Amino acid sequence: MQGSLGQYAGRLQHSRKDLLRLKRVMLHILFIAVVFLMKQDTGHKATNHAAQHYRVNIYKQGFCREYMTKRGRKGQVTIFVIIAIIIVASLLLYFLFQRKPEVQRADFADPKKFIESCVQDSAQEAVNILLPQGGYISPEQVPKKYKLYEDNKVVYLCYTKSYYETCTTQEPLYIQHLEQEINDYIQPKIAECFFQLKQDLEKRKYEVVEKDLKTEVSLEPKRIRIDVQKPLTLRKNEETQEFSSFPAGVSSPLYDLAVVAQEIASQEARFCDFEYVGYMVLHKEFDIEKKAVGGGEDASKIYIIGDRATGKKLYTAIRSCAIPPGF
After folding, report:
1. Which positions ≥6 away from 274 have C-beta within 8 Å?
2. What pLDDT, on a 0 to 100 scale, did the predictor assign at position 238?
3. Which site among 68, 201, 215, 271 is 20 to 30 Å from 9 CA-CA?
4. How many domains does the chain have?
5. For 151, left (φ over 0), alpha (ψ -120 to 50), or beta?
């Protein structure tokens, strides 16, 4: 997300102009070559026919095959040169028309697209961090316990420190918790993106008037919706642009995985177990694994809930109805 608004817009504009100029030049070359070839073909048709007849008579008389008129040779060489020019010009035109101007991801020339890209990247980062940690960005900073598994600090979704007792759900409002975790993570990053946008606009002599930033994250089936509210006014040369909202969305199975995690915690709290095999039979879109880890006071279960379509996995830790050592 580096570079200025002037650099990106200028670079894109010059690239398009250069491309159009080059296309016009190549079309002129191709047209001239075709016209020249037609003239050569008309002018030399009779000559080439006579030369061919003459060579046949020469061959019949036993003369050397290499003997031919200089004009015939010139005509043949000219034709081959023109054909080569047409082939090269055609190839160049093909690749030029196929090529599209390159546009940087951080396109400051369009504030909405720039902020949308920033929001999407930040939200995806947040999801990738919290998935293997039981739905937390920073497990070490929360009072809840976590279980270390494959170098991940997986926070307990249902926990009891006692033996033989069912666990207690640690996050009754798990979906809302995930929304808050993502919102807390992306808000300062979005604020930084607005700061960069303002700097680049001011370099281009824009007057930028902005107000406070508000963000809201909503988890939906197979999608994360992010609503960014920040009144923004741009003025330059008596022209004014106003923005108020910057909505964005990310495709993600986080909501669906969280619903399964809640079901696991609910059944563990009631029955000391979760029948994950039967659940997968009914819900073929999920792939669920259960791992028994630790022993004694640390005896726990790690459930790995995978979305078959995307390959994303949510880890959750459970300690319920633990059995003391020796039993």
Report:
1. 263, 264, 267, 268, 290, 303, 318
2. 86
3. 215
4. 2
5. left
